[in-house]
Amino acid sequence: MTLLVISPDYASHLLPLATLATAWRDAGEQVIVATGPATASIVDEFGYSRVNLQLGRGSNPGVIRAEDQPTGEDDALRGFFDATRSGMIETLRFQAEARSADLLFDPVQNARRVQAVVEQTKPDQILVDHLAFGARLGLDAAGISYADVVLGHPSALPVGTEVYGQPPFWPEAFTPSTAELASLRAVNERVSHEFTRQWNAALAELNPAAPPSRDAFAEHGPRVLFNYPELIHQPERTAALPPHAFLGAALRDDPPDLDVAEWLEQGTLPLVYVSFGSFLSVRTDVLLRVVDALRPLPVRVALATGSSDPAAFADVPQHWFVRSYLPQVTLLRHSALAVTHAGNNSVTEAVATGVPMLALPFSTDQFAGARAIEAAGLGEARAPNTASASELREAIARIQTGLAPALATALAATVNLTPGPARARDFLGASGQAAYLP
């Protein structure tokens, strides 16, 4: 049997998809990944074959910098980073306005490229990143069945009266006004309408007989896989989802890192892992406030600086481990606390390793993810632009001495009863969702 994995050329997207595919690989089946060249090394590390497929203008091999992006995409990234400094409403508004160019780039040609990849590889089953809208458009237009993998918070697939881009849940530290929320919703509704118009125009060109969509952001594959623990998702929202499976987490094994392994062996203090992912690590100012919060505490820190200038962290304590990119899962397995932007990989991997969290969300579904952390008692959330070092330090103390560590350990035990890759393969096998190849 052959599994085809379709992913944008972003490490944060490909890593969980590639991890899910290990269930097929370990069963002796062929795995082919269709993605771009920036993440080719990840495909190689997992031992898969790769077919070149560039779904968007940008790319991210693990740490993203605006200057490494194509013309146009670099300015868009800088605009996004600037928006995060203005606050959550401005950030979400900026992301909404950029959505069509980001998520439905060159839709007809990308759709046809995906169809050509399917024809070339002739897979039995297909996993597709939900945010690869152009890829899903091509599969839908051709009548090809696939499993739709939602890698973000489940609200990335809106249900009921939800509008894509409007967080359905907010952490307690964020208090947007009614007017601000109404203004943001108006923007998201307008963008959703325009995005759906573009989707339908492309769909009509690809397959004139296909019925148009009422809301392209609510479109999904025949079977939906949520890379997320069901136990921290609101039950009433779960009831509104289409046929689906919650996978818990795609918890990968990092490649060996001798420097990290040696550092782990040398220390005995509780470990705090700090990372804002591949994008938000550009917020050096917030990372430095986290450093100031942790500096006087009896902890050792593993700090991923990402796209921040390493020189900004030259005076951190000598027993800390600081590098631009770190093996996240390896370090989480040894951590007592994670300080995170509440990106979905970070949240699900911390849950699966039993690590409580201090969440500092900046954008998109990070707000919903941070609220889920709070609601489950797994930690606290604070506003990254306004929380002082002393406030962060107080929050860390409450998390460490409260119920969060015990609750995180208990939740991890439940999540790990059946690993995410096994859940994905079992669900697709049980549902008989082999790809239909016309």
TrEMBL record:
Q: Which UniProt keywords apply?
A: Glycosyltransferase, Transferase
Under InterPro entries, the record lists: UDP-glycosyltransferase, UDP_glucos_trans
Matching Gene3D superfamilies, A to Z? Glycogen Phosphorylase B (3.40.50.2000)
Which superkingdom is the protein from? Bacteria
Q: Name one GO molecular function term.
A: UDP-glycosyltransferase activity
Coiled coil spans: none
- Does the record carry Glycosyltransferase as a key word? yes
Record protein name field: Glycosyltransferase
